[in-house]
Amino acid sequence: MGMTKLTCLSSRIVFAVWVLCPIYSFAAEPSTDEPAKSDKSALRSRVLEEVVVTATKREADLRDVPLSIDAFSGEALREIGVENVEGIARFSPGVSVSPGLDPEAAQIIIRGVSTDTFFTFFTRTFGMFYEDISLVNPSILGPQPNIDPFDLQSVEILKGPQGTLFGGSALSGAVRYVPNRPDYEGAYGKVAANIGTLDKSSGNSHRYDVMWNQPFGENLAARVVASKGDRPGYVKDIRSGRDDINSTDSEQLRALLSWRATEKLEFRLNALRRETHQDDGSFADNDQEPTHSNRFFADVLDSRTDIVILTTEYGFESADLSLIVSNLDKDYPQRLDYSQFFGTSTLGVGLYGDTTIYSSQPSAELRLVSANPTESNWWLFRDWDYVVGLFYIESEQFLSLELGTELTGNILQLKGDVYAEESALFFDVKRKFGDRWEFGFGGRYFEQSTVADISTIADPVSGLSATNPLVGLLTPIIDALPLDSTGVNLGRDQGTISETVFNPKFTLQWSYSDELSVFTSAVKGFRYAGANQNPSRDPNVPLFFESDEIWNYELGIRTEWFDGALQVDATVFQLDWTDMQVQQRDYTGAFAYSDNVGGARNRGFEIGVNMLLPAGFYLKLNGSYVDAQTTEFFDDFQGPAPAGTELPGSSPVSGSALLLWAYPLADGQFSATLSYTYQNRNYNNLAHTYEHPPLELLGASANLSMPSWPGAPVFSLIGSNLTNEFKPAVVFDTPNTGGILSIFNPPRSFRLGVEFTIGDI
Description:
The chain is mainly beta. The longest helix is centred in the N-terminal third of the chain and has 14 residues, at 2-15. A hairpin with an 8-residue loop joins strand 4 and strand 5. It has 8 helices and 41 strands. Residues 1-48, 462-473 and 475-485 have low confidence and may be disordered. This is TonB-dependent receptor. Residues 62-174 form the TonB-dependent receptor plug domain.
């Protein structure tokens, strides 16, 4: 059935060849100084220029890296109207996206590596990095900042385990944000604003961006970037009569300072703050329309993320030495309606859950990167390119959950303190053999430990009779407890789990010419162990879940034709996943925990085509096929999952495309894009209790840039989900009521924007 879907998708792409694809990088604006030079040469420089990535912790041409990486420039993302990680990931083959309850909770599934489609408090299979700093905590997740791409140098999507260079936070791959650095050469800035509409909503969206780059002399420069936006909601609360309850707003500030102390020594300070607020959650309690009729409390969701990075770089003749010291603080207060999870909604009683998640995560990395191949009289030690380093991170994480009703106040309190620590030695070396072969070998040896202190307290309940149906419903938790004025400690779990791990990496590349290369790799990935909450004191819930690991094997080919006007790349891969961390439920059906169960094997292929077409057109096509199945029987809490069960959230077929047209004008340039993304059906959990329908999204943009006008304005009109495909993207079962909770993909939207430049960029 999967191959039939792939054939169907291929037919659609061929039929709609003028409608399709994503972006690697559109970096340079075509010049209008020589209109007669033709739009073809300008477009060639725009879309086919070398794309430099730093995912291997050294600069390299994307097409020379023997790993699967997609890179997107910040300017290119803005041109087609992408403002979040969900929009970015849809343009990367083999990557599926599930929206979250709030802006900081999207689920990214790379090559089918997933055991659930719904965001939880626990670890993710994918990593997120700002520069080289992990945004994911080892145990209690908290918010995962959905960083705004305005004035980013690039966003990189790394496929396959990244454990060698990035540790235990990138089991299946990673999303990496790379900011623009301060420019020592000139003072300039940008100011942008847009206003938009959203179907199924009575409000408008607004967005404001500003960037300023300021040098102070020849060796000191600063860059400040600020963004603020709000988006109306589209979910209706039937019980209260409120419309558009899931409206959101966000603020983001980046400040970067660079000081070139000497020709060889540079210091960089990078600080980021991101804050979000959502008035209510995005849950609906059906899969037909965005309405909710069983909500007793608003799902108020807030988040704050602070990152500070201090980088010191010193350039020796043969290598560059870097010291990166950082601190990541995250705060995630929430009030969630638990009525449907516990089943109190069937009695007309609302149950709230007040959650606070806080973490502080300092880290340090010292690494040495070769500037030139090594020199030696010994053949074995000659001509090596290398990265070698030391890494340390510690993460203090705190979770507090208080459950209660309006009548009782707090009934149950959970408190969890988790401390995680990692010390690592890593290296990544490569060497050419002759003119065509290059061999690479890397590894990460590290020790990781997690210390947990989890306690549960039942609070005294006053004004609630023993015959109240709420008491009977919560019997597993509070019935027959000797409650008094001080409350009762139901239990406290303390312990430590430690592991010593080595993650190897092997790559081999054969380059016949600049137009043809073949690569293969074998890479092992690892994900941290962690601690579970257990408010119900279920004896079957373990205090810790252990680490899981993946071996990723891939074979790829990269080709160029017709002087680079056509690029065709393809990759086949297999992932072997063992000791999977699977989300389960305790005996109340209301609380989630993680356990290690069985394994999976994921196989598939990815293909990408870039074409420079006549008359100023450029087309990019991507597609993938993923067969992700369990290898062992597993008795999921929602039903049995025999060997061969398709992993949840894994779309067997996905594809995307972009058609770009650029046309030079006498005073500027007009460009337009038409984009299409497709995500095949997938299941919501291992028991396959719900099948998410396929999703097709069509987008378009038109941009008019007038560099000769004052302020060099750029006017844009951007449309998303033009056909208004509105389907449940995540469906979550609530066993205590026999119902479901759904999150729909956002409806059709249009945005009109303008951007001005101050100074000479």
